[in-house]
Amino acid sequence: MRVDLHNHTPRCKHASGSPSEFIKRAKELGVGVYGFSCHAPMKFDEAYRMGANELESYFAEIGEIAQAEQGAIEVLCGLEVDFIKGREYLLEKSVLEARVDYLIGSVHFLDTWGFDNPAFIAEYAKRDMVQCWREYLRAIKAMADSGLFHIVGHLDLLKVFGYTMPECVSDELESALESIAKAQMSIEINSAGLRKTIAQAYPSREILSRAFAYKIPITFSSDAHSLEQVGAGYEQCLELARSVGYTECMIYRKRRAIACAL
Prior knowledge:
alpha/beta
């Protein structure tokens, strides 16, 4: 069962290609379960996410595609939700209580710094990256502790421009993994990192091995923002999962986790 649960639509204002085109490409690649999880509405960084007034039409559009594709490919509907530690008040009730298959909780910001946005890459030179990693992992832990989400998005995203996790923050990583395990969340193996400066999937083999020790389940994502990114890097991510010891991955239907053999 080929699974790909984290993918975007033009509603996020930085993706191209229609959902129907994405599904056509996914079928060509032999994907069995394909999930849309576009950036959820939030009154923050609104240039990179759908508006609140688009939420219902997004659900309707994906629902119509899912209905039309029954028997050919399973189409799931989720949302990627920004979790900003200290700004939890920004989370929208309409998003958290939405009738979705799953919610992906992602940390893209340390306070107001969008650290994965190339527009703000100069900020790295001004920062203590050890402290940034501590803050990032504490945000991941807080996100898991909230109990609001099903999947951890791109677990070590802070490495995107090459600043990999230092060993001295291992305690924060272990604490975050403990919270993820307690919350019964999955982590995604996300191939988007393969096409970034770091040229690695998220998370690293080391982090994935630690997650495996905690019996934290996985799922797969290409994080596609364009047609050519649909399914990209899947074989590398699958090999990574198997090399660590994983034999199954999770999908979600109406917020319920279902295991699928790799």
